[in-house]
Specification:
With about 500 residues, this protein is an alpha/beta fold. It has 3 domains: about 80 residues, Carboxypeptidase-like, regulatory domain (Immunoglobulin-like, Sandwich); about 70 residues, Carboxypeptidase-like, regulatory domain (Immunoglobulin-like); about 300 residues, TIM Barrel (Alpha-Beta Barrel). Helices cover about 25% and strands about 25% of the residues. It is built from 10 helices and 27 strands. The strands form 7 sheets. A 9-stranded parallel β-sheet has the order 25-24-23-21-17-16-15-27-26. A 4-stranded antiparallel β-sheet has the order 3-2-5-6, with no helix packed on it. The longest helix has 19 residues. The chain is elongated. The termini are far apart.
Length: about 500
Amino acid sequence: MTRIVLLLALVSSSCVAAPSLLIGEAVPAIVPPPAAIAVRVLSYKGEPLVSAGVEIRSEGADPLSLLTDEAGMVFVEWNALGLSVHTEAAAHKNSNLALTDRPTDTVEIRMAATVLEGFVAGVGGRLLEGATVMAGGQTSMSAADGSFRFIALEPGEISASRAAYLDGTARWTGDGVVQVSLEPRTVRALHVGGPEARGDKWVELLQIAADTEANAFVVDIKDETGTIHFDSQLAIAQEVDSVRSKYEIPALAATMAERDLYLIGRIVAFQDPRAAEVKPSIAVHNSDGSIFIKNGQSFLDPTDPVARQYAIDLAVEACELGFEEIQFDYVRYPDGFGESTLFDGGSSEEVRAEAIRSFLFEASKRLHPLGCAVSADIFGFITTNRGDGGIGQQLEMLAQVTDVLSPMIYPSHYSTGWFGFTNPNDNPGPVIANALDDGLDRILGQVILRPWLQDFSYNAAQVRAQIDSAEERKAGWMLWNSRSSYTIEALNESDSSAAP
């Protein structure tokens, strides 16, 4: 009986054993149960990115779109066949990560920031230093090579502004290098002497600008007498007793800005009888040691380091207080000096041209990073003369280191025979046209050419003839009158004051 029970037990156990494998069948894959994994998305700074987009792709499943939480986290189900993680976030480059093995810890994805690189260009594509560039709430300033760079920026509009130019914009799509091109500002300016930049005369000049096409003033910072017309704190200005405070630059600049007027500051660089007398070590001398004086003018030595620094430091001080452009006048050797005239660095043509070029180069390197443009007044005949005119002003060399060149093309200053006229002074319009054409032929596309025009000893028709010649060449212009008294009848009405 016992034997029968044992046999039945063996038969019963054989009925529940695993079935035998058929030859040719594969062993079924062992699939682990689903398991959640954590993904943290970090910014380029390593901080959690909130609301970053995360797209999960895996074989055999529809794409899954998620947004990161306040900790920069999302949680996704693991797929044994692997996952592809795609991330997107504002101001960051898209990121892709493939996971083939199930992570044992949180997956951290640190995204790279978008980078905008660009350039600011002016006349003829010339790269501009010192332009203020704005994009996505960020602000930068273009470097010496015109370049600018933004980190973590979304695609959108880029704007740039720069003294002597109109504001410009460009659009960045999120890729590639951007160039923001600026068009020169058309300046129609009146000269304002230092004493005239306040009081009743100042009010009168502001009214002229409100009623006419004039849109800028050239205000004396330091004039031909060596007088400084604001409260300069420069030690050398105090030493030579040159400060005669006439106006407050910040208030002046604020008034100009309110009226959308362009503010240029004029600095007489090397004609300075006050400094020459009080500090003769920086003056031009005769061979006998006396100070060089001709036609009542005495000059500081353009090759003397202290004389050069005086003008540049004054320009920096005025720029920081509110001027938009610094215009250097008398930026030259004295005319009519002879072999017995002494200069620290010499006076050959090569030395002269380099002395003036290098001075303006140094000034530009100081002023451009502060946002100020640099201009230089030159003799009118320099636009025609191929040399340096005996005074260090060589047109092509100066065009390389300034934003604006302003030839003083007063018809009364040209002698018989110039431009084919027996009396150039009787032909104001054609004289301006010829002088500008000569200059534009040589430096077009390199620098802004903005002439000084004559508003003294002329009637309204003669003043207007000069303006029209400048306007035809899109050159802009500045009217010179030493007393800041202008022929209003020669000026067109402003757009706002013109009758409908």
